């Protein structure tokens, strides 16, 4: 299967914009979909700035930046996605919202196209149940920041076909990523491994075992992690992380995933991490 045109739903969000950038940089046309065209435009303007920084550092040529921007088409209606080969949904971690979106996509997007979700922990089988093509629904779980992180975790719903897996893996290679295959269990593989550490860091912070700086230093200097867990939570977005922790806790009943009060309070206060300038740390 050849991928000539893709679409990203929620293309101006934290993950969506990184996915749009990565696809466009690989020379594939991509529709940046948001329900509000102004939000979509803001997303493209943000991407322009992000890539301009790479031009200023000499990592990307001005021509390559222009080529990338030319591949991105702003979009606010489903009909425009009828002829795409692949849709990647990257909206909030909410099962009802994702199912509504997949139902609409299924009615409009050509039948041979693959419908993918970037969900961190929700069931692909349940998302696929909103469509009449569950064999063509798959999890394409990217990591943050998408242009930098090499991995995509491919998640197989109960009905996902091997053909869909192979085509999706080939697409990921085409945009410069490596893949792993995971079952449709709560949190799949990566979050099943990672969230106990992230939540453990929040628990340690809440219990006053050490400062936020020292908790992160312990992981960076003592365990050779590239970024500390609290800084990573700020990067993920504390709201998105809380949604994922809740899904993991509800799905497993395991206290390792139980969201801590301090985490909830930060979200209630609107301190969502990097995107709002404040989370466990403060940003300019
Ligand atoms: N943030 C991370 O580090 C991370 C990592 C891997 C996976 N994920 C997953 O990716 C998904 C998106 O997370 P995020 O952090 O990018 O969220 P975000 O809040 O940054 O972005 C969500 C985007 O979706 C848009 N949106 C909301 N409802 C929409 C609708 N009905 N139609 C179209 N667009 C809509 C919003 O305008 C926003 O641009 C979630 O499922 C999350 O679990 C997040």
TrEMBL record:
Leader peptide range in chain numbering: none
Domain named 3-hydroxyacyl-CoA dehydrogenase C-terminal: residues: 187-283
Entry keyword set: Oxidoreductase
One GO term (biological process): fatty acid beta-oxidation
Residue ranges occupied by any 3-hydroxyacyl-CoA dehydrogenase NAD binding domain in the UniProt entry: 6-185
Cross-referenced InterPro entries: 3-OHacyl-CoA_DH, 3-OHacyl-CoA_DH_NAD-bd, 3HC_DH_C, 6-PGluconate_DH-like_C_sf, 6PGD_dom2, NAD(P)-bd_dom_sf
Top-level taxon of origin: Bacteria
Entry-linked Pfam families: 3HCDH, 3HCDH_N
A GO term for molecular function: NAD+ binding
Pathway annotation from the record: Lipid metabolism; butanoate metabolism
Important for catalytic activity, annotated site positions: 141
Keyword Iron (UniProt): no
Entry-linked NCBIfam families: PRK07819.1 (NF005875)
Similarity comment: family membership: Belongs to the 3-hydroxyacyl-CoA dehydrogenase family.
Official protein name in the record: 3-hydroxybutyryl-CoA dehydrogenase
Organism: Desulfosporosinus lacus DSM 15449
Lineage: Bacteria, Bacillati, Bacillota, Clostridia, Eubacteriales
């Amino acid at each position: 299967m050849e991928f000539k045109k893709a679409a990203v739903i929620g293309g101006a969000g934290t993950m969506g914009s990184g996915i749009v950038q990565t696809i466009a940089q690989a020379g594939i046309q991509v529709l940046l979909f948001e329900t509000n065209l102004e939000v979509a435009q803001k997303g493209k303007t943000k991407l322009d700035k992000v890539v301009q920084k790479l031009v200023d550092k000499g990592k990307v040529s001005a021509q390559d930046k222009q080529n990338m921007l030319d591949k991105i088409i702003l979009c606010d209606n489903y009909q425009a996605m009828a002829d795409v080969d692949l849709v990647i949904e990257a909206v909030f971690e909410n099962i009802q919202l994702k199912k509504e979106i997949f139902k609409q996509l299924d009615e409009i997007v050509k039948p041979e196209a693959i419908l993918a979700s970037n969900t961190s922990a929700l069931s692909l089988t349940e998302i696929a149940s909103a469509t009449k093509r569950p064999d063509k629904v798959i999890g394409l779980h990217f990591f943050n920041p998408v242009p930098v992180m090499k991995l995509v975790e491919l998640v197989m719903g109960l009905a996902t076909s091997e053909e869909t897996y192979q085509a999706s893996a080939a697409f990921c290679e085409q945009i410069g990523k490596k893949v792993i295959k995971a079952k449709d269990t709560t949190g799949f593989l990566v979050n099943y491994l990672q969230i106990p550490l992230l939540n453990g860091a929040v628990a340690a912070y809440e219990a006053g075992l050490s400062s936020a700086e020292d908790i992160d230093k312990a992981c960076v200097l003592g365990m050779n992690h590239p970024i500390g867990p609290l800084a990573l939570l700020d990067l993920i977005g504390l709201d998105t992380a809380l949604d994922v922790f809740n899904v993991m806790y509800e799905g497993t009943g395991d206290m390792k995933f139980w969201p801590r009060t301090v985490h909830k309070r930060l979200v209630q206060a609107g301190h969502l991490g990097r995107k709002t300038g404040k989370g466990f740390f403060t940003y300019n």
